[in-house]
Amino acid sequence: MPPRSLAVLGFTASTFLLAFWAFGRVEPHYYYTVAVRSMSESWHAFFYGAFDPAGTISVDKVPGALWLQALSVRVFGFHSWAVLLPQALAAAATVPVLYSAVRLWIGTRAGLIAGAVFALTPITVVLARVNIPDTFLVLCMVCAALATSKAIKDGRWPQLLIAAVWVGAGFQMKMTQAFLVLPALGIAYLVAAPGGFSGRLGRTAVAGALALALSSVWLVAVALTPAVNRPYADGSTHNSVWEMALLYNGFGRFSHGTAATDQVSSFLADFGGAAGPFRLFNSEVGAQVSWLLPLALVALALGLVARKDFPRERAGLLLWGTWLVTHTVLFSAAPGIHPYYTAAMTPAIAALAAYAFHINTWVGLVATGAWAVVLCIREDLVWLGIVVAVGVVVALVARLPAVAVAAVLVGPGVFTSMASGKTFDGLSSLNPVAGQGSALSGAGMAAMHGMPPDMPFPPGMGDMNMVTPNAGVLRYVKQHHSQERYVFAVPTANTAAPYLRAGYSVLPMGGFTGAAAVPSIVELQELVRSGQLRHVLIGGFHGGMGGGVSIERQEWVAKNCAPVPPVEYQGASGPSGPPGHPELLFDCRPGGAR
Questions:
Q1: What is the pLDDT at residue 409?
Q2: What pLDDT, on the 0 to 100 scale, is given for residue 593?
Q3: Cis previous bond, 459, omega within 30
Q4: Which residue from 35, 309, 348, 479 lies 20 to 30 Å from 66 (Cα-Cα)?
Q5: How far from the centroid of its chain's Cα atoms is residue 238's Cα?
């Protein structure tokens, strides 16, 4: 096996090991994991992305990434490691694809450097350790970049169509975020591909149309399915997958929309720090992704402005440069972002960092070395900052490119290695970060749950019964459950998660935000009348979610059902829930005494 193949294999294996060796320290994402279990038990639930086994409501995303996790569970059984395995494999698979794309552009050495940078970027590994869809998105985007690079290199028309297929696959993983790579692919092909401009423009238009068509396949299939034959589309207030994909998970993140979109936006507002040009360098995001960002930006500027070889190199500069600039602008301007969103930038940073060493930009080395020292000091790793500084100085004085590469990689490499063993519980998996960053924003959690901003949410309030069920409530409803379809109903999917994961049939009213109109008052009445539902839980940590729709449901329950004496289900520590908002259990059995 050639040395370069051994190196690629080594980087690939290292990425997998960094992402997976400590799987026992990771509690998978509480919400997605419940859906994966449901989807693994029924092909109907699998296709529609049902959150609960009864198929009442779907997850609030297009379920492409969860399909892969559910298949893993079908093969290996419902274990945490089986849920986490596909992400580690996807991150590892990205390395040889990225290597191939950069090698095609500027050679083997640069391809190897790009693979190493990607593998040793903290957010790459941290994200791949939990079951969040973005790792699959990144793989699809890099595959699209490789296919486009091949189409540009030799003018092969089918390769551009393959790139469109990968963009369509990326949409199934993370919806409209996959489209952020389209400007990079389109501009690079239009400017640098062989042939006349009109031909290039026509082929680009066809590929773009194919990408959009393939992105819409699942949405169209669900939209054409009668509502009675599929789960309610969570993330929407009108049972619309289009609303879920394009508004709730798309444009609604930037403007006011429905109760569901506003609630998620208020939650995200406190993540990622203040919007602005320096967000990617702040204390929340900087250590996750920006170690080599200065080097990539300097290399891009030099390549576009000062390089005589630009005509030969312009395809890659336009592709990776547009990719980086598009994501940088969007993530800097968005009202709120999870830091792990920036994983989508890492392939572009890696490719342009490799280009920096291709053109031997010592200015970029100084800039990124200085920034790495700042990040090390921020994370209380002063010794590591000293190592980086010494390495950069030696590389500059001795003009040793190999030492320069090692100097800029040692900081993120050590930081990533440390993060590969970090413990993530069921809630910190919501927002996985490396180092000392805070996984959850208290104010954001309070806003989403309709509580005052000073409410002491986790860790002060435990896991809010999103990971651990309320033992007293569960004991009571099990004792009084007979033939009903649901053991009981709860205010949101968040409340339902621990019970569903344990294998109980629970009705997740309102979905993730509580704002979904399922069940409606009429449907709730029918469930009670037909004997499919007896007990309903309201209030608690999630009772304030969902706005008017949720309030109407809870008012109906309080008016038409008999309250169960709290002593029957509350433990010795008293009521479960934030101060002044206890969980209250009601018995809705027809004819039951009030």
A1: 95
A2: 40
A3: yes
A4: 348
A5: 24
- pTM, rounded to two decimals: 0.93
Task: Compute the distance between CA of residue 594 and CA of residue 32 in angstroms, rounded to an integer.
Answer: 38
Which tokens sit at 253? 């993140």
- HEC sequence for 404-450: HHHHHHHHHHHHHHHHCCCCECCCHHHCCCCCCCCCCCHHHHHHHCC
Count helices and strands in the chain by DSSP H and E runs: 25, 5
Nearest to 473 by CA among 532, 537, 554, 541: 537
The beta strand positions in 52-147, using DSSP E, are: none
Pairing status of strand 506-508 against strand 488-490:
parallel
* 304, 321 contact by CB (below 8 A): yes
Query: Which residues of the chain have a pLDDT value below 70?
Result: 252-270, 308-309, 311, 437-462, 571-575, 591-594
Q: Report the C-alpha gap between 36 and 30 in whole angstroms.
A: 10
Q: How far apart are CA 4 and CA 350, in angstroms?
A: 18
Cα-based distances in Å from 70 to 74, 268, 511: 6, 27, 20
Phi/psi of residue 415, nearest 5 degrees: -60, -40
Tokens of 417: 């290695």
Distance between CA atoms of residues 350 and 475, nearest Å: 53
Q: Which among 479, 475, 535 is positioned nearest to 509, based on CA atoms?
A: 535
Say how far apart CA 152 and CA 136 lie, in whole Å: 25
Question: From the centroid of its chain, how far is CA 206?
Answer: 29
Rounded distance between C-alpha atoms, residue 28 and residue 574, angstroms:
29
* Assigned token pair, 355: 């280009």
Q: Which residues partner with 26 through β-bridges?
A: 424
Inter-residue contact 292 to 117 (CB < 8 Å): yes
Cα separation, 138 vs 140, whole angstroms: 5
228-273 residue pLDDT tens = 999 999 989 899 999 999 988 887 666 555 555 555 555 555 677 7
Q: In this structure, which amino acid lies at residue 528?
A: V
Query: Would you say 51 and 508 are in contact if contact means Cβ atoms under 8 Å apart?
Result: yes
- Reported as a single tens digit per residue, the pLDDT across 350-361 is 999 999 999 988
Burial code (b: 16+ CB inside 10 Å, e: under 16) for 300-312 equals bebbeeebeeeee
Cβ contact 264:237 at 8 Å: no
Cβ contacts of residue 117 below 8 Å, gap of 6+? Answer: 292, 346, 349, 350, 353, 354, 409, 412
Give me Rg for the CA atoms of the chain: 25
- Using alpha carbons, select from 148, 228, 138, 122 the residue that is nearest to residue 180: 138
Residue 582 CB coordination number (10 Å): 17
Residue 383 burial (C-beta neighbours within 10 Å; 0-12, 13-18, 19+): exposed
CB neighbours of residue 217 within 10 Å:
12
The tokens for 547 are 């706005």
Reduced to 3 states (helix: H, G, I; strand: E, B; else coil), residue 577 is: coil
Maximum distance among all Cα pairs of the chain, rounded to whole angstroms: 88
What's residue 126's pLDDT?
96
Nearest partner of 471 among 462, 483, 459, judged by Cα: 462
% helix / strand / coil in the chain, to the nearest 5?
Answer: 65, 5, 30
**Total residues found in the chain within this entry:** 594
Q: Which of 350, 469, 517, 538 is nearest to 34 (CA)?
A: 469
Q: Could you tell me which of 521, 529, 524 has the C-alpha nearest to residue 592?
A: 529
